[in-house]
Every structure is written in C-alpha cells, then in structure tokens.
C-alpha cells in the first residue's frame, strides 16, 4: 500500500513538472531570470537616418553657414566704418615763437624800403598724416619805430613742419615780437614723435 501511494505521488509530481516546462510563458520567465534568454539580452537596433532626413539636415547647415557669413561681413563693414571715422578725427597742434632784434636770422631785403625778413623753421612735435593748415597770429610787438608794417606767413608747409616768415617795413627792427601758430588736419598723427627744434615752443 505504501509503495502504491509513493508511485502515485511520483506520477503527480512528474505530470506537473512536464506541464511547467512545456509552458512558453513560464519557460521565458525562467530563462530570463537565469540570464539565458537571448531575446532579453539583445539591444534594440538603432534607427538609421533616411536620405530625406540627411538632405534636410544638410539644407539647415547650409542656411546656418550663409547666415554666419552675412553677420561676419556686416561686422567687417562696421569695423571699416569705425576705422574711417578714426582716421578723420581732427588733429591739432600749436605753439608760440618769440623773435628778438639781436637774432642772426634777420635779413635786410631792400635798403630803400627797409624791408626786413626773419626766417625760422618750425617742426611739429608729431608729424601729421596729411599736410595740415597753418594759422599764424602776431600777439605782441615791441618797437621804437613810430610807423611800421608787419606781416607773418607760413611757407613750405609739410607733414613735418613749416617755415615761419616774419616781414617788417620799418626803420628799425622790433625789439621783440611774439607769434602764435596753430596747425590742424583731418587725419590722425603718426604715433612716433619727432624732436622739437628751437623754432617751436
């Protein structure tokens, strides 16, 4: 009797075991837990871009490149305009000259009219980029002559300087004369200064 019960129990266990392993769902669950399911371990394949998507991306990149080139050209034009404005910034220099009777630069040009001239070179502290305009003015004359005529001119004007010419029509040379000068130009002066001669103060 005991042998019969044992045999029946083994048959029942064997029946359920066969049903368990023949069930696909249970088999897949068991294999996945054991790491033996190839489908569970295989990653999903990546989706490749289509030809239309690649063409659309190429068009977007081309448009971005064109927009960047347009912006770069605009910035270069702005820089050129600013440089042009800087070059047109007015440059001004000035000074004063004192002329005395005893200086050797005086010359008697005409004995009958008593016309005398005084020449002196004037150097700019910083050369101009363009030939400047020079303005002169007599600010003081000390003379014992009751009558006289005086004039001052700027000659041989260059970017580096000019020649001052002072003329008198009087019996005697003036004791002392003060002359102011002003030079201006619409260009930027050179950054390298030249030494000032005795002609400018």
Rounded Rg: 52 Å
Count the beta strands: 7
Spatial arrangement of strands, main beta sheet: 2-3-6-5
Order of helix and strand elements from N to C terminus: HHHHEEEEEEE
Could you walk me through the main structural features you see in this protein, from its secondary elements to its overall organization?
The chain is an alpha+beta fold. The protein folds into three domains: 1-34; 54-87; 91-185, Immunoglobulin-like, CATH 2.60.40. 36% of the residues lie in helices and 30% in strands. The protein has four helices and seven strands. A four-stranded antiparallel beta sheet has the order 2-3-6-5, with no helix packed on it. Strand 2 (106-110) and strand 3 (115-123) form a beta hairpin. The longest helix has 37 residues, at 51-87. Mean pLDDT is 75; it is low at 189-201.
Question: Layout of SSEs?
Answer:
Elements: H1 2-21, H2 24-34, H3 38-41, H4 51-87, E1 91-100, E2 106-110, E3 115-123, E4 133-142, E5 149-155, E6 161-169, E7 176-185
Antiparallel strand pairs: 1-7, 2-3, 3-6, 4-7, 5-6
Can you tag this structure with a few keywords?
201 residues; alpha+beta; Immunoglobulin-like; 3 domains; 4-stranded antiparallel β-sheet; 3-stranded antiparallel β-sheet; 4 helices; 7 strands; 30% strand; disordered C terminus
Quick take:
This protein is of the alpha+beta class and 201 residues long. The chain is built from four helices and seven strands.
């Amino acid at each position: 009797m005991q042998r019969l019960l044992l045999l029946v129990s083994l048959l029942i266990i064997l029946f359920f075991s066969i049903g368990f392993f023949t069930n696909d769902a249970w088999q897949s669950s068991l294999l996945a837990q054991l790491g033996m399911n190839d489908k569970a371990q295989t990653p999903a394949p990546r989706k490749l871009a289509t030809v239309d998507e690649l063409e659309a991306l190429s068009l977007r990149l081309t448009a971005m490149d064109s927009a960047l080139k347009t912006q770069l050209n605009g910035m270069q034009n702005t820089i050129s305009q600013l440089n042009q404005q800087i070059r047109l910034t007015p440059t001004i220099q000035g000074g004063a000259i004192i002329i005395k009777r005893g200086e050797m630069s005086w010359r008697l040009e005409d004995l009958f009219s008593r016309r005398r001239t005084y020449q002196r070179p004037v150097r700019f502290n910083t050369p101009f980029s363009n030939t400047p305009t020079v303005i002169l003015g007599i600010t003081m004359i000390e003379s014992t002559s009751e009558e006289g005529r005086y004039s001052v001119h700027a000659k041989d004007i260059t970017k580096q300087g000019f020649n001052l010419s002072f003329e008198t029509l009087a019996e005697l040379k003036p004791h002392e004369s003060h002359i102011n000068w002003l030079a201006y130009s619409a260009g930027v002066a050179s950054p390298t200064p030249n030494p000032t001669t005795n002609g400018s103060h």
